[in-house]
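Example record

One chain of 351 residues, shown exactly as stored in the release files.
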Amino acid sequence: MTQKKGPQGSTFKKFMVVMVIILIVALGFTGLNYYLKYFGPNVTGKQEYLYIRTGASFNDVFKTINDEGIVKDSTTFYSSAQSMNYVNRVKPGRYHLHEGMSNRKLINMLASGTQEPVTLSFHDLRQKEQFAGFVAKKIEPDSASIIHLLDSAAYLQQYGFTPDNVYTIFLPNSYQLYWNTTPEKFFKRMYANYEKFWTPARKAKAAAINLDPIKVSILASLVDAEALHDDEMPTIAGLYLNRLNKGMKLESDPTVIFAENDFTIHRVLTRYLSINSPYNTYLHTGLPPGPIMMPSVNAVNAVLDYQKNDYIYMCAKEDFGGYHNFATNMADHLANAHKYQQALNERNIKH
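Predicted structure tokens for this chain:
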């Protein structure tokens, strides 16, 4: 005989079905929230990079992320950062952001310090103050902290440099380094490149002309300042070496301009030649105490592979093409100088 199910059994069954459905919905909702919290796209793409300064706390980072609109939902980012213990793993740096990055991917990148390096390219920067300002625009340290290091005699002494000649270690090139590089690490990176550049072969060439790498670079800065065309550099280098070997003053116009600190001067007048400065090679015999600009690698190589000649005088050509007339004696030099001065007068160039 078959028993019929009572109303209580049917109600219980319905209740169980409803509970299962509620559980499935709850689990689905929880799973969706979990996915959105950790794996859903959240980075907006409004900023290409996130910069985290040295010593920044998690609250500092979170404020930057909020202020710059880096994520769509800052609440889920905050919660994810707490869950992933990022609050205790903040690392400074320059981080490349991609639109649609998830909180998990962003936090893993920040916590691991996986930053993108900065490419630093420099050349033709005349003074180390100008150089420090340029570098400070690319990395975290400010120009004052960089200059402070480059002016520290005690720090530079351990590397064999002085505040006057330290600028010779900076060789024009492209370098990759991290944004939060300290001034000391930046200097060590540049020094390592300097050491790599000065191979035994280059040092032997320097010794053959009675110069060390620092003096070669100082002379190269004069050559670079004089030469508009690289193919004339070895000739100018040969001329300067002739004057050094004869004990003559170099009488380099660019050193006078550097001493005057006025790079708009086009005509070096007699009154400039008496400027009281160790960089004025019209007053002082030998090389100046430091470079008058950042010499190019071509200029350094031009000094090492100088042209052997008998020139001791040069004067810019009167056609203003950037080349020079060279002379072995004063009479020829005065004739060349007269032609150039006449050309300046014709063009009404007074200073």
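Notes: The chain has a mean pLDDT of 90.
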